[in-house]
Amino acid sequence: MSKNEEMEGKMFIGGLSWDTTKKDLKDYFSKFGEVVDCTLKLDPITGRSRGFGFVLFKESESVDKVMDQKEHKLNGKVIDPKRAKAM
């Protein structure tokens, strides 16, 4: 997978519940396509979730499917998936 292909399939996921785990993220987003990787951003001091993470899909079409759905809920919270931007 080239860097460019990787960016095409990468999503930023905001608004996550503090209780959301990597498994929760993967389980939820797997219904849109094959998930290659999930990361949750954690506070380096407390080890708690910072409320956002990233999902990497194998196919960029999966990102389109996520974007086509108006609302996403995970662990009782409305979450905010967006296409990841290259830093």
Number of helices: 3
Roughly what percent helix? 25-40%
Straight-line N-to-C gap: 18 Å
So what's the overall shape? globular
Q: Which residues sit in consecutive blocks of at least 5 with pLDDT less than 50?
A: none
- Averaged pLDDT: 93
Q: Order of helices and strands, N to C?
A: HEHEEHEE
For the CA atoms, what is the radius of gyration? 12 Å
What is the number of E strands? 5
Counting helices, strands and paired strands, the structural category is alpha+beta
For the largest beta-sheet, the strand count, sense and barrel status come to: 5 strands, antiparallel
Read across the widest sheet, the strand sequence of neighbours is 2-3-1-5-4
Strand content: 35-45%
Q: Which tags fit this structure?
A:
single chain; 87 residues; alpha+beta; five-stranded antiparallel beta sheet
